[in-house]
From TrEMBL:
<feature type="domain" description="Fluoroacetyl-CoA-specific thioesterase-like">
    <location>
        <begin position="17"/>
        <end position="120"/>
    </location>
</feature>
<dbReference type="InterPro" id="IPR029069">
    <property type="entry name" value="HotDog_dom_sf"/>
</dbReference>
<dbReference type="Pfam" id="PF22636">
    <property type="entry name" value="FlK"/>
</dbReference>
<dbReference type="InterPro" id="IPR054485">
    <property type="entry name" value="FlK-like_dom"/>
</dbReference>
<feature type="active site">
    <location>
        <position position="70"/>
    </location>
</feature>
<feature type="active site">
    <location>
        <position position="44"/>
    </location>
</feature>
<feature type="active site">
    <location>
        <position position="36"/>
    </location>
</feature>
<dbReference type="InterPro" id="IPR025540">
    <property type="entry name" value="FlK"/>
</dbReference>
<protein>
    <submittedName>
        <fullName>Thioesterase</fullName>
    </submittedName>
</protein>
């Protein structure tokens, strides 16, 4: 990894909850609020934004672990801010605290771990497993 990534580095992004982000199964709406699946997707995305500027040519980041709690609903139309903050890092692993929040409080919170690996080895493993 390139130098510069440190504990405390943060990234954030804001998304408006849309109908395609709601809790639905097989096209059947369960709740008209941000689904846990969509929340985790955006937490992983904002965590990815933290590492991208620091990846060397030939390196790739891959999600290794995510633990989250879904604390509050976020109805369709509500703006949700997703934030990732580096809380631990080594040469080959970046751990971020991730949060989702809106004007009424914390929607979700957790920890997202990414491993930094050789792109060639990673894609070789994909090929081996296909």
């Amino acid at each position: 990894m390139k130098s510069g990534l440190e504990k405390g580095n943060k990234k954030s992004m804001q998304m408006t909850v849309s109908p395609d982000m709601t809790a639905s199964f097989d096209g059947r709406l369960i709740h008209p609020v941000l689904s846990t699946v969509a929340m985790v997707y955006h937490m992983e995305w904002v965590g990815r934004l933290i590492i991208e500027p620091y990846l060397e040519e030939g390196e790739e980041g891959i999600g290794a672990e995510i633990q989250v709690k879904h604390c509050l609903p976020a109805p369709v139309g509500v703006d949700v801010v997703f934030e990732a903050e580096v809380v631990d890092l080594t040469e080959r692993q970046v751990t971020c605290r991730v949060t989702a929040s809106h004007g009424h409080g914390v929607v979700g919170e957790g920890v997202f771990v990414q491993r930094i690996v050789s792109k060639e080895k990673l894609y070789g493993k994909f090929q081996e497993l296909s």
